[in-house]
């Protein structure tokens, strides 16, 4: 825990006593920017599953994944309101800025989480609902509460929470967990550390101020550069998992080779020189990398589906 | 719950209530559609 929780007391009191939060504040709690990648990978999992899903049920399942991601964001902001007040990037969020009482955010997050899981179970199936509940619980309890403030391995293990959505989407369509959906999980799981650490390289001052033990803060820049390169190298073979599992075809494999090479090249550049420019470039590329690989899988499936008919 | 007296607070409360109305209306439509799909055997 931070040793400066008193910073918030005045804000929290003000929020608890008088302020009525605006709709925009509730929307901000949902972390809409994070939600977009979660929805995209969840949709990919659903499209890539071998069983088709009714479009209306599919839409509801994607909505549930989005709402669950938003609920996780709200619960994360509720728990992290003290450290959020200490970081430039997060101090304007509704709770540290005093625009909302903590209890409102907690209630909002819990209601959305329970609602998303329940609707997923009723509309799609209960294995998908169970996976969705696991995703929320993993993000809130394992990552946010347990790991984030204790170990620099926080995003390595906690990254699993961000890797679950394609499995949830897959399960919403097929009702099961297979090697195919696990290969999608593994791809995001292995991608998360170099993605976050490249951001942490140029945000380490913020994390240090908040007392969050991100790798550059605890182990230094050099070790972070080394770990980014190691995980980038490990990511390349893991990225062929969907091809091996039969989820992707030759086009995906070719793209994974090309993009994997570029990812490693970016990691080598950061390893040689951890300038903000190199780190920002790798961070930006990592987002494009994941987007393009999933887009390739979706395109192959859709084109293949049309060809068979 | 404290009484809402300030004009800004009243405006925000009204917006929040309208948003909640939209969400509830959306849920009604959602449950209707899911029920129709399930009853017609269209789900997987």
Please render the helix and strand layout as text.
The complex is a heterodimer of chains A (309) and B (44).
Chain A: H1 9-17, H2 23-29, H3 32-48, H4 55-79, H5 81-84, H6 102-123, H7 126-147, H8 154-163, H9 165-174, H10 179-210, H11 215-218, H12 221-239, H13 241-244, H14 250-272, H15 276-308
Helix pairs in contact in A: 3-4, 3-9, 3-15, 4-6, 4-7, 4-9, 6-7, 7-8, 7-9, 8-10, 9-10, 10-12, 10-15, 12-14, 14-15
Chain B: H1 7-39
Polypeptide structure, described:
Chain A is 78% helix and 0% strand. By secondary structure, chain A is mainly α. Chain A has 2 domains: 1-176, UbiA prenyltransferase (Tetracycline Repressor, domain 2, Orthogonal Bundle); 178-309. The radius of gyration of chain A is 20 Å and the shape is flat. Chain B has 1 helix and no strands. The chains are: A mainly alpha (309), B mainly alpha (44). Chain A binds chain B through residues 17-23, 26, 51-54, 56-57, 60, 63, 119, 122-125, 173-175, and chain B through 2, 4, 8-9, 12-13, 15-16, 19, 30, 33-34, 37, 42-44.
Strand content of chain A: under 5%
Please give the radius of gyration of chain B in angstroms.
Answer: 18 Å
* Structure classification of chain B: mainly alpha
What percent of residues of chain A adopt helix (DSSP H or I)? over 70%
Order of helices and strands of chain B: H
CATH topology-level fold name of the largest domain in chain A: Tetracycline Repressor, domain 2
State the low-pLDDT regions of chain B, or none.
Answer: none
Number of helices of chain A: 15
What is the number of helices of chain B?
1
| Assigned CATH superfamily of the largest domain in chain A | UbiA prenyltransferase
Mean pLDDT of chain B: 84
CATH architecture of the largest domain in chain A: Orthogonal Bundle
| Largest interface, C-beta closer than 8 angstroms, per-chain residues | A-B, 24 and 16 residues
Unreliable stretches of chain A, pLDDT < 50, 5 or more residues?
A: 1-10
In which range does the helix fraction of chain B lie? over 70%
According to CATH, what is the class of the largest domain in chain A? Mainly Alpha
Oligomer: heterodimer
Largest sheet of chain A: none
Instruction: Count all strands of chain A and give the number.
Output: 0
Q: What Rg of chain A do the Cα atoms give?
A: 20 Å
First-residue to last-residue Cα separation of chain A? 58 Å
């Amino acid at each position: 825990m931070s040793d400066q929780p008193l910073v918030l007391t005045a804000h929290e009191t003000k929020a608890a006593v008088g302020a009525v939060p605006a709709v925009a504040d509730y929307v901000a709690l949902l972390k809409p920017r994070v939600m977009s990648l979660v929805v995209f990978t969840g949709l990919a999992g659903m499209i890539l599953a071998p069983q088709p899903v009714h479009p209306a049920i599919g839409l509801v399942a994607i909505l549930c994944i989005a709402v669950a991601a938003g609920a996780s964001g709200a619960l994360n902001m509720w728990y992290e309101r003290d450290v959020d007040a200490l970081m430039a990037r997060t101090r304007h969020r509704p709770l540290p800025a005093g625009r909302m009482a903590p209890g409102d955010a907690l209630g909002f997050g819990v209601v959305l989480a329970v609602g998303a899981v329940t609707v997923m179970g009723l509309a799609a199936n209960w294995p998908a609902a169970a996976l969705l509940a696991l995703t929320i619980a993993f993000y809130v309890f394992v990552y946010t509460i347990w790991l984030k403030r204790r170990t620099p391995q926080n995003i390595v293990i906690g990254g699993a929470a961000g890797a679950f959505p394609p499995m949830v989407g897959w399960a919403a369509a097929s009702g099961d967990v297979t090697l195919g959906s696990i290969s999608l999980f593994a791809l995001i799981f292995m991608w998360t550390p170099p993605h976050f650490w490249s951001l942490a390289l140029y945000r380490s001052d913020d994390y240090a101020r908040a007392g969050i033990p991100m790798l550059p803060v605890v182990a230094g820049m050099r070790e972070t550069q080394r770990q980014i390169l190691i995980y980038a190298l490990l990511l390349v073979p893991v990225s062929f998992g969907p091809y091996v599992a039969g989820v992707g075809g030759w086009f995906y494999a070719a793209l994974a080779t090309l993009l994997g090479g570029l990812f490693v090249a970016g990691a080598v550049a950061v390893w040689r020189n951890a300038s903000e420019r190199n780190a920002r470039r790798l961070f930006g590329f990592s987002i494009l990398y994941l987007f393009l690989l999933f887009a390739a899988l979706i395109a192959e499936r859709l084109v293949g589906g049309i060809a068979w008919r | 719950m404290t009484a809402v007296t300030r004009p800004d607070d009243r405006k925000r409360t009204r917006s929040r209530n309208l948003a909640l109305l939209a969400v509830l209306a959306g849920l009604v439509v959602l449950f209707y559609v899911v029920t129709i799909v399930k009853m017609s055997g269209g789900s997987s």
